[in-house]
Amino acid sequence: MHYVYVLKSKKDNNLYIGCTENLENRLEYHNSGKVKSTKHRVPFEIIFYEKYDNKYKAFEMERYYKTAKGKKELKLKI
């Protein structure tokens, strides 16, 4: 299983979109400050995720959700 996830920073309320095989471990990794792009915005909470059997589809959806059109669709889902 692969997951596309959306994290919300409890510090600044901004969102982060990512993809992983292990959702719990990835959240822990972000919150530990080990991710360069998010370390200044910890702590995070998961506010949305989708499961995919195919990792390529998951990565494709992650890229899509980072586009303007994808962000609009994602906000409707959240």
Task: Walk me through what this model shows.
The protein is of the alpha+beta class. It has a single domain (2-77), classed as GIY-YIG endonuclease (3-Layer(aba) Sandwich), CATH 3.40.1440.10. The protein is 38% helix and 29% strand. It has three helices and three strands; from the N terminus they run E-E-H-E-H-H. It has helices at residues 23-31, 55-65, 68-77, and strands spanning 2-9, 15-20, 44-52. It has a three-stranded antiparallel sheet with strand order 2-1-3. Strand 1 and strand 2 (15-20) form a beta hairpin. The radius of gyration is 12 Å and the shape is globular. The chain starts with a strand and ends with a helix.
Features of the shown structure:
single chain, GIY-YIG endonuclease, 78 residues, alpha+beta, 3 strands, three-stranded antiparallel beta sheet
Mind sketching the topology for me?
Layout: E1 2-9, E2 15-20, H1 23-31, E3 44-52, H2 55-65, H3 68-77
Antiparallel strand pairs: 1-2, 1-3
The outline comes out as globular
**Order of helices and strands, N to C?**
EEHEHH
Total domain count: 1
Q: What is the straight-line distance between the termini?
A: 21 Å
Tally of separate helices: 3
CATH class: Alpha Beta
Question: Would you identify the CATH H-level superfamily?
Answer: GIY-YIG endonuclease
What is the rounded Rg? 12 Å
Overall helicity: 25-40%
At CATH's second level, what is the architecture? 3-Layer(aba) Sandwich
